[in-house]
Known about the structure:
mainly alpha, globular
Amino acid sequence: MLHRLLADATVLVHFGFVLFVVLGGLAVLRWPRLAAVHVPAAVWGFAVEAFGWLCPLTTLENRWRRLAGQAGYDGGFVEQYLIPVLYPAGLTREIQWLLAAVVLVVNATVYGVLWRRRASGG
């Protein structure tokens, strides 16, 4: 029972991390010092996806699941939990590019605003 709870807690932490990677730039507008944590997290999230690495949180969750007598899963967290939600059947490559562009534009805008604030002394 404990291992299953640990696996489920790992999923929640992992999901929170993914949200922070994608939307954390918005929090940086309010708390600029958070950029010191968000930028490395965003770089890590990008690298994991771009290079097809397996996130250590996925490995940890799978370990807890196996210790709980449950089957782990192949692939990564994104394939297991997020793709079925974010990429339902019928999603085209063009829509995927649009979603990627939205993430890029949101974060570039946030950091552009932050940079302008600092440059103007505000």
